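User: My instructor asked us to take a sequence, write out its structure as tokens, and then describe one feature of it. I'm not sure where to start. Here is the sequence I was given:
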Amino acid sequence: MTHLAVEPPPLRDQAGFIAANTRLLPVPLVPEIRLHLAHEAVPIWQKTEEELGEIGLPPPYWAFAWAGGQALSRYVLDHPETVRGRQVLDLASGSGLVAIAAAQAGAASVLASDIDAFAVAAIGLNSAANAVAVSATGADLLAAPPQPFDTLLVGDLFYERELATRLLAWLEAARAQGSMVLIGDPGRSYLPKPRLEPIAEYRVTQTRELEDAETKRSTVWRLL
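Assistant: Let's start with the prediction itself. The structure tokens for your sequence are:
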């Protein structure tokens, strides 16, 4: 029997896909930062599924500036002492918005993590568009004990029960190691408020296609 060599499928050009299907726009609450953003959720969601040849994918979180991330980014820029000269991790970074804000505010280094390969590509594009240095990883950091970062930033991640439970345990372990943990959230169902201290509040403009209101009250919290 003859065995024919099979060529591996070509790597998809995530950066090219993002550039072709988004526009570089200022973020409403953080106009100092521009991101590659989608105008509508459903069309780019469908195009992402077509690009990957898969149906039922999670939403393209990287294509939007979510309310919690906008609030946290605004706070970091207005309070640069939270990140200045520090080693910073932006967890589940999506577009890279919060990571970019940390870099602009003077962080010594910024790592943006997201398990979505398109998000990793978006972080690279958006960092370059804002002329800041941000490293990106697609590793699931929650699968291992937290590394010793000075500041951990979490934007809008407490939207599912199982994820929230796993995330809180991981963040508490990081806090026990001495990390400062800041969370931006617009009132998601599984936010562990008893473990948090509110430190700032913002009203964030958001598309009705993503949220239940055009303006979301979003709070920045510190993990106790």
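For the description part of your assignment, you could build on this observation: The first helix runs from residue 14 to 21. Try explaining in your own words what that tells you about the chain.
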